[in-house]
Amino acid sequence: MIADSRIKALRGESAHIDPILISEGLELKSVGLLVSNSPHTIWEIIYHMNYWQDFIINILEGGNPKSPEHSEETWPSQKKPPGKQEWLEMVLRFKEGMKRAEDECRNDLSEHLQGNVGNTRFHMLMDLIMHNSYHSAQVVFIRRQLGEWPPPSGGDS
């Protein structure tokens, strides 16, 4: 029951858009566009989401990744992907990370994690859920500005 609740939260059921859908149907030319009053492109946001998703999952899977010294390290150096293949790989990496996060939701959420004083699986998963939710909303906002929302499979307008 608790695992199902975490998975629903991760996937945005009833609360926010499923983060998997934020990249659906986007053309390569759109992901590198900077819209008015937005500090980041879709490419940059999804890159950043991947960075922290990978980081948190690494911890959940028993790793001890080194925290970045500066937040700039969690963002790409370019506003757009070098090419279509890099974009597709970034999207696939995000989807695979979401699946790994779902798997982690099925573990004991009260377990304290090595090297993360005070952090349990629950706390780390909640950080990931909130982070993905926040940045998914940014991508939806940009897509609306570009006239590319909702995605082909539908979504709240």
Number of domains: 1
- For the secondary structure, the number of strands is 0
Proportion in helices: 40-55%
Shape: globular
Q: For the CA atoms, what is the radius of gyration?
A: 16 Å
Biggest sheet character: none
Mean pLDDT: 91
SSE arrangement, N to C:
HHHHH
Measured distance between first and last alpha carbons: 30 Å
Class inferred from helices and paired strands: mainly alpha
- Compute the number of helices: 5
CATH architectural grouping: Up-down Bundle
Name the CATH class.
Answer: Mainly Alpha
Q: Runs with pLDDT <50, length 5+?
A: none
CATH topology category name: Four Helix Bundle (Hemerythrin (Met), subunit A)
- Give the full name of the CATH homologous superfamily: dinb family like domain
InterPro entries: DinB, DinB/YfiT-like
Family: Belongs to the DinB family.
Keywords: Metal-binding
Protein name: DinB family protein
Helix and strand topology:
Layout: H1 2-11, H2 28-31, H3 42-60, H4 84-105, H5 121-145
Helix pairs in contact: 1-4, 1-5, 3-4, 3-5
Question: Can you walk through the features of this model?
Answer:
There is one protein chain. The chain has 157 residues and is an all-alpha fold. The protein has a single domain (2-64, 73-145), classed as Four Helix Bundle (Hemerythrin (Met), subunit A), CATH 1.20.120. The chain is 51% helix and 0% strand. The protein contains five helices and no strands. The protein has helices at residues 2-11, 28-31, 42-60, 84-105, 121-145. Helix 1 runs parallel beside helix 5 and helix 3 (42-60) runs parallel beside helix 4 (84-105). The radius of gyration is 16 Å and the shape is globular. The mean pLDDT is 91. This is DinB family protein. It comes from Halobacillus shinanisalinarum.
